[in-house]
Every structure is written in C-alpha cells, then in structure tokens.
Amino acid sequence: MRHPPAGEVRIIGGQWKRSKLPVPDRPGLRPTPDRVRETLFNWLGQDLAGWRCLDAFAGSGALGFEAASRGAAEVVLLERDRELAARLEQSRQRLKAEPVRIEATDALGWMRRCPPQRFEIVFVDPPFEAQLFDAALAAAAPLVVPDGFVYLEADREFSADALAPLGLRAHRHLRAGSVHAHLLRRQAEGYTAPADQPDGSPR
User: Fold this and answer.
1) Phi, psi of 26 (to 5 degrees)
2) Is 19 helix (H, G, I), strand (E, B) or coil?
3) Which of 36, 61, 157, 200 is in the most buried spot, having the most CB atoms within 10 Å?
4) Mean of pLDDT values over 150-161
5) The model's pTM
6) pLDDT over 80 at 166, yes or no
7) How far apart are CA 80 and CA 100, in angstroms?
8) Residue 2 counted as domain residue
9) Which residues pair with 185 in a beta bridge?
C-alpha cells in the first residue's frame, strides 16, 4: 500500500479536526494513512480523556496529535531527527497543544530509561527498513499500564507466540497493503484497578 506523498496529513477527529500537519519528504517517513488512523481510533474509542500517550517514532506526529485532539491528558512525541522535532514543536505551538511534549531523542534509548507503567498507550511505528519492530515492542511493553495498549505498525503480523513473552496479546489487527496494524493489549495479571476504574480500563 502506498502512503500519502510528502506534503501534509489531516487530524481526523477531536478539537483539531481537519487541522493539517506538515509531512516533509524524508527517507523512511510514512505517516499512518487516514483510513488506518480512523480505524485505530474507532478501536480505542473517540474520547481519550485522561489518557497518557507516547508516540515513540513520531515523524509527522499524526498519531500523537490525533490522541491529543481527542482529549489525551499527556502526549509525549519522540523524534531523533532534530529538523522533524522542530517541525513538531511548530505544530504544537500553532495548535496550542498544551498536553503535547516533544523530545528530540532516540526512541529506544528513551523507552529503556522510562519508568514502567507510565502510559495508557504507546504508539510504535518505526521506519520499516530499520527493522526495529522487536526491539521497539520489547522496550514499549513495560511502559504500558496493565490492560493498556501498544499500537504497532509493521511489515508482518506478529503471532501470539511472539507477543506472549512480552506480556502482550493481540486485541485487533488490520492489514492495509503491506502494512500490518496491530492493537495489542497488556496482560493485567495481578493488577488492581483504582477505585474510580472498577473494570481496570485505562480510560
């Protein structure tokens, strides 16, 4: 499946619906297509109020800004390309996106240093040619609260056997051309929900 050409992507829903995000022509930069993003946020629910989100390979920022647009309380965008990170900061300021924070840093190193159970969802969409899927999943899984989510875009479908050692299980899967979009859920073994979340949901 071909991704949109360099130029721009639009936020699909929430307070910044139809706002544009620039997409520079950079090697490996593949914004998540609108149809896949729309499906993902249908899976998650339209309202992410109170969620803490990490967009680990931010690129255009489409996933992170989409989450913030839908009410997320905190969104951290990681992007090691400093020019891309500067563009993300420009978008943050233009949208007055106070919940969003941009970190110009290596995603794998940042995630490995991050305290565990820090986020309700981690978005993992690394450049396909870098083949970072396994390393990125291993770094992301501990950062998610029990019953929280990891979203992964990869060039193949990840099996239950590959996910189980990480404490993850497949919740939803979509194939769009060569892209496999996975919504994975963190196992909730031994987890006690806060009093205001009796079902253990991260929402």
Assistant:
1) -125, 145
2) coil
3) 61
4) 95
5) 0.86
6) yes
7) 16
8) no
9) 149, 169
